[in-house]
Amino acid sequence: GSTLQAAAAETGRYFGTAIAANRLSDTTYSTIANREFNMITAENEMKMDATEPSQNQFNYSSGDRIVSWARQNGKQVRGHALAWHSQQPGWMQNMSGTALRNAMLNHVTQVATHYRGQIHSWDVVNEAFADGGSGGRRDSNLQRTGNDWIEAAFRAARAADPAAKLCYNDYNTDNWSHAKTQGVYNMVRDFKSRGVPIDCVGFQAHFNSGNPVPSNYDTTLRNFAALGVDVQITELDIEGSGSSQAQQYQGVVQACLSVARCTGITVWGVRDSDSWRASGTPLLFDGSGNKKAAYTSVLNALNAG
Ligand code: G3I
Predict the structure, then answer these.
(1) Could you say which residues of the chain have pLDDT below 70?
(2) Looking at the whole model, is its pTM more than 0.95?
(3) Given this model, what pLDDT does residue 279 score?
(4) What residues make up the catalytic site (predicted)?
(5) Using the 8-state DSSP alphabet, how is residue 144 labeled?
(6) Which of 43, 85, 172 to mutate to test the pocket of ligand 1 (most atoms within 8 A of CB)?
(7) What one-character-per-residue DSSP string does 240-279 give?
């Protein structure tokens, strides 16, 4: 294949990007996005603060713009994210207990119902595990409603949109030897054994010099897949430049291609200038929209698979 989406499709996988609704009018941006990618994630527009700015008053305008652009151009959509400790609307941030639990479940139900039938995979719960060596849950207002809040969110999402794949999504879960990776693995194993509806695990894959692409990445992906879930690289970006960055991108693609249930890769933005890492160059296209060495290494790795 001569584009990322075409090359990934040859092995039955997708290749996606995060899209920001307010950049779609930039034709350099939308031309690259349309040509290279066939899976779209809303970078911010489907988050809790965007979709429910006031309690029980939902605003889908920006999320709908992204879904409609994706559908017009024949692309699928990953939903991001139904429940998260961060990017909560102000009214939710100080809630607790049963009121918060019910508000969270109502949010999951309403948003998943609005987008029912249009979402390939939902990040139902995002970033619920703690950093560091504990392997346990992150403290948050949602966690303080009870340890079962994650499975309650997954059950609500399944009821609202039975066709969407339901994912748990997190960062720094790439290295198999990290406690956080093990914590998520144990939760997914428990969910599968008890019939909690989970279909996939997303690995955000935000890499930098302090958090490099691990040499055991394929082991991590394979071990999760062996639990009976699909795995996806959901927010890939890698700090750096030139051949070092290109090689690390190649390693991520090769790890995914080595696992049958690694069904797709999404990069977290189009050009370096679109990245949330404002001062970095972590993506596949430079600020002018030119293909970087990292682009070529990803395309070649996909074609070699
Ligand atoms: O659009 C408003 C603008 O109107 C306002 O004036 C300005 C002032 O703060 O904020 C603008 O919103 C910002 C938004 O990005 C759009 O640029 C928010 O402040 C800013 O917080 C938000 O950052 C996003 C971040 O998530 C928020 O948590 C990044 O774009 C987005 O790339 C990033 O994505 C996350 C994933 O959702 C989860 N995994 C990690 C990943 C990277 O942090």
Answers:
(1) none
(2) yes
(3) 83
(4) 235 (nucleophile)
(5) G
(6) 43
(7) --HHHHHHHHHHHHHHHHTSTTEEEEEES-SBGGGSSSTT
